[in-house]
């Protein structure tokens, strides 16, 4: 269940996410906003989901023995094949409904940590299951389906200029 760091109401989420909070179990996850800087400004790395092939940022369940930011860095490696320093302060939070085969759906509250990509490799654990794409924060914002995540991505571009 939700880890209690903040209540669902204090998480700063959209009305749509809030309306689901009473109907579903709530779980915590962490994500890595993988970025690099280029002459044109910051770029964000998006990856596809394994089944639906939607664009997202690397995210997943918290890993026992790791901090949330360390869990985010591990997800970035497994899902995108990137390495670099991961910040320990969350940039923000987004929510989504996770449909779990054979289990009830759940509301996931995802804390997002910045990861400055210093190395990107071709061979990584989920390389055959995902695509990767570097885009501007504005394009990243328009490609993800979550309005909360889209706003966070667009805001990252403003913070870094």
Architecture overview:
The structure is a single chain. This protein has 161 residues and is α+β, with helices and mostly antiparallel strands. The protein has a single domain, classed as Nucleoside Triphosphate Pyrophosphohydrolase. It is built from 4 helices and 9 strands. It has helices at residues 15-20, 68-80, 137-143, 147-160, and strands spanning 26-38, 41-48, 55-56, 59-61, 82-83, 92-98, 106-116, 119-120, 132-135. Helix 3 (137-143) packs antiparallel against helix 4. The chain is globular and about 45 Å long. The chain starts with 14 loop residues before the first helix and ends with a helix. Keywords: Hydrolase, Magnesium, Metal-binding. One of its GO terms (cellular component) is cytoplasm. It holds the Pfam family NUDIX. It comes from Ruegeria halocynthiae.
Topology:
Blueprint: H1 15-20, E1 26-38, E2 41-48, E3 55-56, E4 59-61, H2 68-80, E5 82-83, E6 92-98, E7 106-116, E8 119-120, E9 132-135, H3 137-143, H4 147-160
Parallel strand pairs: 1-7
Antiparallel strand pairs: 1-2, 1-4, 2-3, 2-9, 5-8, 6-7
Helix pairs in contact: 3-4
Fill in the keyword field for this structure:
161 residues, alpha+beta, Nucleoside Triphosphate Pyrophosphohydrolase, two-stranded antiparallel sheet, 25% helix, 32% strand
Please outline what is shown here.
By secondary structure, this protein is an alpha+beta fold. Helices cover 25% and strands 32% of the residues. Its cofactor is Mg(2+).
Shape: globular
What's the rounded overall pLDDT mean?
87
CATH class equals Alpha Beta
- Class by SSE composition: alpha+beta
Topology, number of strands: 9
Radius of gyration: 15 Å
Number of helices, where a helix is a run of at least 4 consecutive DSSP H or I residues? 4
GO molecular function, one term: metal ion binding
Keywords: Hydrolase, Magnesium, Metal-binding
InterPro entries: DDP-like_NUDIX, NUDIX_hydrolase-like_dom_sf, NUDIX_hydrolase_dom
Pfam families: NUDIX (PF00293)
């Amino acid at each position: 269940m939700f880890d209690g760091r903040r209540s669902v109401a204090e998480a700063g989420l959209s009305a749509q996410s809030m309306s689901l909070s009473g109907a579903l179990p709530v779980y915590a996850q962490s994500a890595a906003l993988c970025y690099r800087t280029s002459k044109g400004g910051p770029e964000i790395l998006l990856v596809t989901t394994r089944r639906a092939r939607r664009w997202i940022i690397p995210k997943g369940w918290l890993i026992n023995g790791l901090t949330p930011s360390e869990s985010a860095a591990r997800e970035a490696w497994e899902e995108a094949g990137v390495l670099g320093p991961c910040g320990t302060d969350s940039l923000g939070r987004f929510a989504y409904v996770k449909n779990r085969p054979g289990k009830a759906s759940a509301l996931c509250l995802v804390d997002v940590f910045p990861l400055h990509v210093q190395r990107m490799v071709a061979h990584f654990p989920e390389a055959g299951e995902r695509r990767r794409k570097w885009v501007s924060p504005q394009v990243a914002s328009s490609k993800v389906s979550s309005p909360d995540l889209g706003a966070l991505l667009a805001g990252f571009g403003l913070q870094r200029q």
